Amino acid sequence: MNVLLLGANGYLGPHVVKALAPHHRLRITDIQPAPSEIREAFADHEFRDVDVTSAEQVIDAAQGMDTIVNLSVVRRDPVLAFRVNALGCYHVMRAAVGHGIRRVINTGPHFTVAGPGYERFDHAIPPDVPPHPGTGLYPLTKSLGQEVCRAFTLSHDVYVQDYLFYSLRDPSELKPGAGGVPFVVAWADAAEVFRLGLEIELARLPSKCEVFFILADAPQDKFLNEKAKRILGFAPKTDVSMLWRATP
Amino acid sequence: MKRRSFLQQAGLLAAGATHVLAPREAAEAADARVAGARAPTDAAIKTVLVTSAHGELARIVAAELDRDYRVRLTAPTPVETAHELVPSDLSHDESTRRAVGGVEAVVHVAEPPLGGDEAAAIDYRTRCTYNLLGAAVEEGVRRVVYLSSLRTMHGCEPGFRVDEDWRPLPAPEGGGLSHDLGEFTCREFARRGDLDVIVLRLADVVPAGAGGNGVTDSAWIHPRDAARAVSAALARPSADQLARTGHWAIFHVWSHGPSPRFPILKAQKTLGYRPAFGGEES
Fold first, then answer.
1. Measuring CA to CA, which residue among B200, B187, B201, B203 is closest to residue B247?
2. What pLDDT, in 10s, does the model give residues B210-256?
3. Cβ atoms of B191 and A117 closer than 8 Å
4. Torsion over CA of A88, B53, B219 and B263, rounded to 10 degrees?
5. For residue B158, what pLDDT is reported?
6. Residues ≥6 apart with Cβ < 8 Å to A247
7. Which of A85, A106, A243, B75 would staple B53 via disulfide (CB 3.0–4.6 Å)?
8. What pLDDT was estimated at residue B35?
9. Residue B237, preceding bond cis, omega within 30 degrees?
10. B127: which chain A residues are within 8 Å (Cβ-Cβ)?
């Protein structure tokens, strides 16, 4: 499968590249040039500089692709957060529709849907809840991007899977009893879900726009990963539960 | 504490006095005007900010509100007006705070500057709305009237009466999506309870000179009817009423609706809205 990766040089992108490279032909893009070690390690894939705030660049980059994976994000800049996180999704979806690309994977933080209104009060929070991102710049703009994706799926023959994360860790950082937010996943497990998302038959998705929480099993039962397991076959390998185990 | 928390998130510094919206006073003023009573004294007149002063709709809204309020306009570029004008492109900067400083309420007409495409409209109705409402929270503004569009509902299944309880289904093209995203942005501010937001989903606004003539195959609204709806949204419902509905209310509004697809009964009952143009309601 020809896969366009947008925003691929951030924190998560290199892990996704590593997970997908053996199975797919990748067009690896970002506004920043890829580090030389990444270019060398994946020299048989294509690299481009693409700014997701430019409709023309995104549409051009999507030419000949079967799937778009949008990893782009800006968290704090009051202009770029809107133009990357919200308007960027508009450009992605226009590109998908224009090129007849039926599979899009979008990404964001957990509070794209489960903002403070849920997180402060509730448990067993599933991904399929009305989005309450709150007024924080990062969650709100990502939630707007998700709304853009939803609108396109209602009008066009395109499917969107939205993967939401919170805390991503290297297994070496998982210290017994260290605690932390109850929404943790290892980088490699997070990357693996993209491979699953490219393999799933679109007809097996419950609808054309589906949101998934991507986290390892956590004992608090605050956020649920059951949907990702059931539909995508997500099976995180790294046990993160030691973060909350009582230490002697 | 919530206001301070927002300001910290948004990166804006808290400053200025707190102004408390007095919708009950405004409602009384509106009632007094209806009854032919004297206009309120200068000291009692509240200031209302109207955005998008570069457009005809904002100018007509300003003229309507001028009877009961001191009107301040804002636009990204200078415009000729007899009202106070605070130039601002509603960016994340001091000009937006100056625009909302000292006002009782904001009427966000939300018309992007001319010449933009749908992407520009999305940017304007999300980013600029966010900056405007963030500054409004900071300055203690208690009410925002957001002028949206019935195009947000055009994807709803034909054959039903689509009232304000329906989930928006905008098409990605044609203006509905950008308005839906503008509403989305406003809703999150209302959910926090820092200010009241009233959304008026207007039918397509015809030019004031057209009077609706020749436009009969779809719902439309004359800008003077839209302005009357804005005036009613400022005067009522009361803050207590809005608190009971989560500081959030939506109304469908048009002058002429050849089909009953988008009923305006809620606007009629709650706002006392009666269109002066377009004939009887279907």
1. B187
2. 755 555 567 899 999 999 999 999 998 999 999 999 999 999 999 98
3. yes
4. 90
5. 87
6. A176, A177
7. B75
8. 39
9. yes
10. 78-79, 82-83, 86
Separation between Cα atoms, residue B196 and residue B186, nearest integer Å: 9
Q: Residue A132 half-sphere exposure, CB side, CA atoms within 13 Å?
A: 16
CB contacts of A209 in chain B (<8 Å) are none
- How does strand B46-50 pair with strand B105-108? parallel
Calculate ∠ Cα B169-B171-B172, nearest 5°: 125
The count of residues in chain A is 248
The number of helices, as runs of H, and strands, as runs of E, in chain B is: 10, 9
User: In which residue are the tokens 């990204």 written?
Assistant: B76
Does the beta carbon of B8 lie under 8 angstroms from any beta carbon of chain A? no
Interchain CB distance below 8 Å, B169 and A117 = no
Of A90, A137, A151, the CB nearest to B119: A90
The pLDDT tens digits of the residues spanning B19-78 come to: 323 434 444 444 444 333 444 556 578 999 999 999 999 999 999 999 999 999 999 999
Per-residue model confidence (pLDDT) at position B43: 58
In 3-state terms, what secondary structure has residue B136?
A: helix
Q: pLDDT per residue over B88-142, tens digit each?
A: 999 999 999 999 999 999 999 999 987 779 999 999 999 999 999 999 999 999 9
Put simply, the answer to whether A83 touches B127 (Cβ < 8 Å) is yes
Q: Report yes or no: B155 and A155 within 8 Å, Cβ to Cβ.
A: yes
The residue to which tokens 């919170």 are assigned? A166
Tell me the three state secondary structure of residue A102.
coil
Give the residue on A whose Cα is nearest the Cα of B188.
Answer: A134
DSSP one-letter code for A245: S
**Residues of chain A predicted below pLDDT 50:** none
Nearest to B63 by CA among B231, B216, B185: B231
Q: How many cross-chain Cβ pairs, A to B, lie less than 8 Å apart? A: 83
pTM (2 d.p.): 0.90
